Amino acid sequence: MDKPETHRLFFGLEIPDLVKQRLVSIQQPVAGARWQRPDQLHLTLVFLGSVARQRLPDVCDAARNLPVEQFDLTVCGLGCFGRPDFPKNLWAGVQPADTLAELHEVLNQRLCMPGFEQEKRPFCPHITLSRFKGQRGSVAELLEFQERQPVGTFSVDGIALFESTQGAYGSVYQIIERFPLAGNPERLCR
């Protein structure tokens, strides 16, 4: 019997090019850092993992007509997972976190159906800038220098369903479909 075709999926936010350029400009030589390319920068809302092709309509239906109004998102400050002297990931912070948490929760509730496991870790909205492997240099100075530094603000008027595939130079993200938030003119025209 053939194994069903699956896709590695997540819901997330696209980052505008200007903000991506500013985030990439933060990059500095740090031992073990694998910096994200501009086309890899995004904010994950809900990670779904491997999803069978036939479940794609269910996934898309869960994101339609979300009852969350469009909002402005500010990217500012840096943080890391792990200790600053031995980081796992370096990330940019975002505000307002409560609106993102609401969006995350609405999506999670709608995806509460057979075949979809809920993420166990608490939701911590961020934009991953670098991943670390092997010997890791300290990011303490970078964190201190960039503390609360604003990177940019942009309007969030929708979310996207991304597919992640492994490429020769890291993950490649492709948007499968976009879903407008409440108050978005695209949504009102339908």
UniProtKB/TrEMBL annotation:
A motif (HXTX 1) lies at residues 42-45. Residues 14-88, 96-173 form the Phosphoesterase HXTX domain. InterPro entries: Cyclic_Pdiesterase, Phosphoesterase_HXTX, RNA_CPDase. The keyword Glycoprotein does not apply. The active site is at H42 (proton donor), H126 (proton acceptor). Its EC number is 3.1.4.58. Pfam families: LigT_PEase. A motif (HXTX 2) lies at residues 126-129. GO terms for molecular function: 2',3'-cyclic-nucleotide 3'-phosphodiesterase activity; ligase activity; RNA 2',3'-cyclic 3'-phosphodiesterase activity. SUPFAM superfamilies: LigT-like (SSF55144). Keywords: Hydrolase, Ligase. It catalyses: a 3'-end 2',3'-cyclophospho-ribonucleotide-RNA + H2O = a 3'-end 2'-phospho-ribonucleotide-RNA + H(+). Belongs to the 2H phosphoesterase superfamily. ThpR family. Hydrolyzes RNA 2',3'-cyclic phosphodiester to an RNA 2'-phosphomonoester. This is RNA 2',3'-cyclic phosphodiesterase. It comes from Marinobacter algicola DG893.
